Amino acid sequence: MNIQFCRLSHIKIADIIALNTNDRVLKQMPLADGTQFDEQQCIAWVKGKEKQWQEHGYGPWAFLVNDKFAGWGGLQYEDGDADLALVLHPQYWGLGKQIFNEIIKRAFNEMGFESVTILLPPTRKNLKGVYLLGFELEGEVILSGERFIKYRLYKPSI
């Protein structure tokens, strides 16, 4: 299985819309407000994600599995932190750990981050995997009016 990272601007808008409006995916995305996510909104959304690269030198990628769009994620600037996002089409959910490992490798080895964060909704009850990955509970934050629990993963000391 070949997994590649590329910029979201290289992905067909229809493919991004299909992912970001998938009912199973939306259940994991509390900031998705359930309103129409059409072509115009998707283009603006992609531009916003690309702007992260321009302003901060990092941002989300698109993930390709065997040259097919599987999802998006990576590091996004969030209140001074590199916040990790990982949104995969349900048929690729089994690849989350492998993609996560590549994001973390790039974050700590290539980009030089000392830590990354994740923000999870309080409804997320199964946190065993979060702690097994090494994340530590940091506290609560409010983002766009929604409450999240913030976890931090520190760069391993060698």
Automatic annotation (TrEMBL):
Sample GO molecular function, one term: acyltransferase activity, transferring groups other than amino-acyl groups
Coiled-coil residue windows: none
PROSITE patterns the record matches: GNAT (PS51186)
InterPro entries: Acyl_CoA_acyltransferase (IPR016181), GNAT_dom (IPR000182)
Domain N-acetyltransferase span(s) in chain numbering: 24-158
Transmembrane segments: none
Domain of life: Bacteria
Protein known as: N-acetyltransferase domain-containing protein
